[in-house]
Amino acid sequence: MKVLVIGSGGREHAIVDALTRSPQVEKIYCAPGNAGIARQAECVAVKETDVEALRDFAVAQGVGLTVVGPEVSLAAGVVDAFKAAGLRIFGPTKAAARIESSKEFAKELMAKYDIPTAGFRAFTDYAAARDYVAGRSFPAVLKYDGLAAGKGVVIAQTMKEADAALRDMLLDDKFGEGKVVVEDYLEGPEFSFMCFVSGRRVWPMVLAQDHKRAYDGDCGPNTGGMGAYSPLPFVTAEDEKFALERIMQPVADAMADEGCPFEGVLYGGLMKTAQGIKVIEFNARFGDPETEVVLPRLKSDIVDIFCAVAEGRGARLEWHGFATLGIVLASKGYPGAYEKGREIGGLDAVGGTVYHMGTKADGERVLTAGGRVLFVVGRGKDLAEARANALRDVARIDCGHLFHRTDIGHWALGNENK
Ligand code: AMP
Ligand code: GLY
């Protein structure tokens, strides 16, 4: 089978890597891909949002399965277009992807089906939102409703901060059409629970945890994620059962009942609070960088799973027992301004796995081409060993323009093994 993967980051590199392990795959294309992906797949110069060009490419090449990575492709309607053309594609339709693209849709679905999440109210009017926030306790959680690449959430400690954010979101309309969801503030460790979903069928993946802050100690600005690991010792089997039976399965059922059955990866961003496990957000796709630590642990043939989801058949998932821990190497300055086009050395000296997040080939050279550049994954019998292996490989990469966190996994490990 010929397979097309849409996207250009570490997540897509991990998907391509998993596909290379399937005996059913004859050829892998990736649009647009990156310098690391190009070592395992043929990169095609088509943008992830150019739906017509992607569809035409799949038809012309006889692609038997397309796998969608990023949300922008889902929001552009790539799944709808492929399905209309009779092509097999793994991912949710635009209507089903609203579970991620519209916070209000997600929150109302959870309220209607009694799925545990923070209490909320939605506002379009600035004065009404301000009055509501002023009458409540702080911190206040303000979420811009729409796709804002993880940048649309403000945790305001004071009314002054809340007011500035509300003005930004509702009056100055920084992101586009204005709507804000105001939520109760929750506390506890967060974790990511990704499930393959095909209508009412739900197959859980192993758990992972992302680290959103830029610097050690969970300090500094929010990013797209600076590292991840799996498994998670602080989430018990009982917690996992609750998350599956009270959150992920009911959401899949609710989507089917609402006439927009979900197909693809449903990603639950969950928090283990003192009052139990609650939903922070849903995504309609593989998480990045969680995928880069979860898929290496997948023992089953991923093509069987993708096809089972797309065709509504049964599948069985088996997992390796080893632990994985991955560290992002990001451009200095990220998530603010940073330089691109810097040469990366030492990649061939790395013993473990390196997924490319933002790189570009220049002849034989590999150059930085994004904020998050590389994702180095260590494996081990436990997380401590996986972290030591990841840090050893990070030290072998030679580029003075990158930085990384040294405490990935600290929720599970503390910092003593650094
Ligand atoms: P989201 O884009 O909804 O995942 O939010 C981004 C981050 O903001 C989450 O990963 C949490 O760390 C934090 N956050 C979101 N909602 C809440 C909430 N209700 N209470 C506390 N923190 C939250
Ligand atoms: N790691 C968070 C996300 O993929 O949205």
Q: What's a concise summary of this model?
A:
The protein is 30% helix and 28% strand.
**Ligand catalogue:** adenosine monophosphate, glycine
CATH architecture of the largest domain: 2-Layer Sandwich
Q: Give the name of the CATH superfamily of the largest domain.
A: ATP-grasp fold, B domain
Number of helices: 13
- Span of the ends, CA to CA: 43 Å
Average predicted local confidence, pLDDT: 94
| Helix content percent band | 25-40%
Task: Tally the beta strands.
Answer: 24
Write structural notes for this entry.
With 418 residues, the chain is an alpha+beta fold. The protein has four domains: 2-93, 3-Layer(aba) Sandwich (Rossmann fold); 120-183, Dna Ligase, domain 1, CATH 3.30.1490.20; 190-311, ATP-grasp fold, B domain (D-amino Acid Aminotransferase, Chain A, domain 1, 2-Layer Sandwich); 323-413, Glycinamide Ribonucleotide Synthetase, Chain A, domain 4, CATH 3.90.600. It contains 13 helices and 24 strands. The chain has helices spanning 10-20, 51-61, 71-75, 78-84, 98-101, 103-112, 126-134, 159-171, 237-257, 290-294, 302-311, 383-396, 410-413; strands spanning 2-7, 27-32, 42-43, 65-68, 89-90, 120-123, 140-144, 153-156, 180-183, 190-198, 201-204, 209-210, 213-215, 219-222, 227-230, 263-273, 276-283, 323-331, 343-344, 353-356, 359-362, 365-368, 372-380, 402-403. Strands 12, 15, 18, 20, 23 and 24 form a six-stranded antiparallel beta sheet that branches. Strands 3-2-1-4-5 form a five-stranded parallel beta sheet, with helices on both faces. The protein has a four-stranded antiparallel beta sheet with strand order 6-9-7-8, with helices on both faces. Strand 16 (263-273) and strand 17 form a beta hairpin. Helix 7 (126-134) packs antiparallel against helix 8 (159-171). The longest helix is centred in the middle third of the chain and has 21 residues, at 237-257. It is globular and about 60 Å long. The N and C termini lie far apart (43 Å). The relative contact order is 0.14. The model has no long low-confidence stretch (mean pLDDT 94). The structure holds adenosine monophosphate and glycine. Adenosine monophosphate binds next to strand 7, strand 8 and strand 17.
